[in-house]
Specification:
Helices cover 50% and strands 15% of the residues. It is an alpha/beta fold and 357 residues long. The longest helix is centred in the N-terminal third of the chain and has 30 residues, at 10-39.
Length: 357
């Protein structure tokens, strides 16, 4: 017996096709943004003056025909302005801010590099989803590691020292006086290095299970001139060494762990009695329906292809996901033995929690 198909609302169908067109354009345009970042095209337009395709090609040592098409794509996407009379293109100050400075709080190309890396992993992810197995962080394309550092570093630059640490009770004073700090799940070390630069009397050690990331972090610390008091070691979250830390920090990584409760218990064992655990997580409300917005779209999508697979690849495989929310995080932290837990700060993209014994 044939199943009757539901009636199609043509207006709703057309609306959905419009969404698809927007998404398709955004995905393909992302590649042109990464090309512009890699070739220094945006930086060559950072003066805000009009430029023709021929002039941009001359400035950047690229092909004029490609520049004409690339600039047209930027104009169609609203990244540059086009003047038909002079056939010239201009990069506005706001776009310059977001596209050319890797150390500002809103640097865009790093996030698009992360997104592009997940497309390269789509076949492996599909097979893992079919089988119900995990995909370890180390199994992803290397662009995920570099893109994550570039994307999150700008956020940490804008918020970590200026607002997040001051929101923690008594922590900033300890860091100024001289504290012992562990940064767990440190990746390329952006958060560790930023904090080390701000608090020269304190010592920092970053831990990550991913050896190539640790190597990159060591190199970055040396280049930043903080390697004498900012070191990096290969270690998982439940086994990192050391005791009597004044501060332990987890930046955007607790939800990725297979056994976050076990990680919480280990943090408790390594803290001083008056120490603090700083947990930075993606912003999320506790109910799914309250996360159905542009930020939730980013995080649920990233969680599907990066965060949940990473957790399922580890022991326990709790798979909190990038939209776990405050209530679920509280459950994890208190289950690990902590008696104090509160939301200390927030931004549109992050929640910052403070946990103490």
């Amino acid at each position: 017996m044939a199943t009757q198909q539901p009636a199609i609302d043509e207006a709703k169908l057309n609306e959905f096709v419009g969404k698809i067109a927007g998404d398709l354009g955004a995905v393909i345009h992302a590649t042109t943004v990464l090309i512009g970042d890699k070739l220094g095209l945006y930086k060559a337009m950072a003066d805000g003056e009009p430029v023709t395709a021929e002039e941009l090609a001359e400035r950047t040592g690229t092909d004029e025909r490609y520049m004409r098409e690339w600039l047209s794509a930027q104009a169609a996407s609203g990244y540059v302005e086009y003047d038909p009379a002079s056939e010239s293109f201009r990069l506005p100050a706001e776009q310059t801010f977001a596209l050319t400075d890797e150390y500002n709080p809103l640097f865009v190309p790093g996030g698009l590099q992360v997104a592009a890396s997940t497309i390269k992993d789509a076949d492996a992810l599909a097979e893992a989803i079919r089988a119900g197995r995990g995909v370890g962080w180390h199994e992803h394309h290397h662009d995920l590691f570099e893109g994550t550092e570039r994307f999150f570093r700008s956020n940490y630059t804008g918020n970590l020292v200026g607002s997040w640490i001051p929101a923690l009770e008594g922590v900033e004073a300890k860091l100024r006086a001289g504290a012992k700090v562990a940064d767990v799940g440190c990746g390329y070390g952006a958060s560790t290095i930023i904090t080390a630069e701000a608090y020269p009397n304190s010592t920092f050690v970053g831990f990550d299970y991913h050896e190539p990331s640790v190597a990159a972090a060591r190199k970055a610390a040396s280049e930043a001139g903080v390697a004498d008091r900012c070191s990096f070691e290969v270690a998982p979250a439940k086994e990192y060494p050391g005791k009597d830390y004044d501060l332990v920090a987890f930046f955007d990584c607790l939800h990725d762990m297979g056994d976050p409760v076990g990680a919480a218990a280990h943090v408790l064992e390594t803290l001083k009695p008056d120490g603090t655990w700083m947990i930075v997580e993606p912003f999320a409300n506790d109910q799914l329906e309250d996360n159905l917005n542009p930020v939730g779209r980013i995080y649920y999508s990233a969680s599907t292809v990066v965060c949940v697979p990473a957790s399922k690849d580890q022991e326990v495989g709790l798979a909190l996901g990038a939209q776990a929310g405050e209530a679920r995080m509280r459950e994890v932290v208190t289950a690990g033995g902590f008696g104090h837990f509160r939301r200390a700060a927030e931004t549109p993209f992050n929640l910052v929690f403070e946990a103490r014994p």
